[in-house]
Amino acid sequence: MKQVTRSTLARTKRMPPGRRRKETPAALRARARRIIARLERAYPGATCALQHRNALELLVATILSAQSTDARVNMVTPALFTKYRTAQDYASTDPKLFEEEIHSTGFFRNKTKSIIGMGLALVERHGGKVPDTMEQLVQLPGVGRKTANVVLGTWFGKNEGVVVDTHVQRLATLLALTREQDPVKIERDLMALVPRAKWTWLSHTLILHGRRVCIARRPKCEECVVSRWCPSSRV
Ligand code: SF4
User: Fold this and answer.
1) Pocket test for ligand 1, best of 224, 229, 235 (most atoms within 8 A of CB)
2) Count of domains for the chain
3) Is 2 a catalytic site residue?
4) 81: domain range?
5) What is the rounded distance in angstroms from the CA atom of residue 137 to the CA atom of residue 4?
6) Catalytic site residue 165?
7) How many A from CA of 141 to the centre of ligand 1?
8) Ligand 1, closest atom to CA 227?
9) Is 49 exposed, middle or buried (0-12, 13-18, 19+ CB in 10 A)?
C-alpha cells in the first residue's frame, strides 16, 4: 500500500478543487458547518463597509463600488450624499457634472448612466422609494442580483441570496465550497450549504476575511481561523 507522506498530503491540500478526490455531500456539509461556526466566532458582527444612512444611499454606494474599493467609495459619498438626497435629485442631475463628482470610483460614465437611470426609474415606478423585493430591484438600471442582495440583506434585513463578489468567489473556491465559476451557480451552492438566516452575514464575512486574511496572491494561511478545514491551506 502506498504510504501517504506529509509532503503528499501537503500537495493534495494545495491541489485545485477540481483535481481533488470528490468529497461526499455529507462531508462537505459537515465541513461547511465547521467553517461557518469558526467564522462566526471571528466575525460575529460582520456588516457592509459602505457608509450609508438609508436604502437609497446604500443603493448608490453599491453601484459605485463596482470595480472599485469600498474605501474609495466612502471617500466620495459624504459630499455626494449631502448634495443628492432624493431619487429625484439623481434623476435630474447634469450627467457631465455627476461624472466629475464620481470620477475617482472608475467607470464613471457607465455608473453615471446607471445612477441617473436608477433615480428616474425610482421616481416613475416607485414614488421615489427604493423597493424591497428582488424582482423590483433587478429591474432598475445598473442593479443586478449582487447589488440587490446587498440592499435587501443589509438595509431591509431580507436574506434573499448571497452576495458573490470577487472575494466571495475566490474564498468559496479556495475553501472548496463550490466547483462552479459562474457567480449565480456559486451563489446557489452557498445558499444550499448555509442556513438562510446567515446568507447576508456570510457575504460580509467572506468579503472581510478576503480583505484581511485570504488576500488574493498572498493569503495569510498561517493566520487563518479556518485553515484546518481549507483544502487550499498552505500550512
Ligand atoms: S487564507 Fe489560506 S487557509 Fe484561509 S481560506 Fe485562504 S487559502 Fe484557505
Assistant:
1) 224
2) 2
3) no
4) 55-154
5) 52
6) yes
7) 36
8) 3
9) middle
Position 7 in a domain: no
Query: Is residue 1 in some structural domain?
Result: no
Residue pair 134/148 in contact (Cβ under 8 Å)? The answer is yes
Q: What is the pLDDT of residues 47-97, one digit of tens each?
A: 999 999 999 999 999 999 999 999 999 999 999 999 999 999 999 999 999
Among 110, 127, 154, residue at a domain's last position: 154
Q: Determine the distance separating the centroid of ligand 1 and the alpha carbon of 11, expressed in angstroms.
A: 15
Q: Is 105 in the pocket of ligand 1 (CB under 6 A)?
A: no
Distance between CA 77 and CA 73 in Å, rounded? Answer: 6
Pick the residue whose CA is nearest to atom 6 on ligand 1.
214
120-176: pLDDT as tens digits = 999 999 999 999 999 999 999 999 999 999 999 999 999 999 999 999 999 999 999
Residue pLDDT, tens place only, 13-33: 444 444 456 889 999 999 999
* 128 within domain boundaries: yes
Q: Which of 154, 177, 205 is at the close of a domain?
A: 154
Q: Rounded to an integer, what distance in angstroms lies between the CA atom of residue 196 and that of residue 161?
A: 8
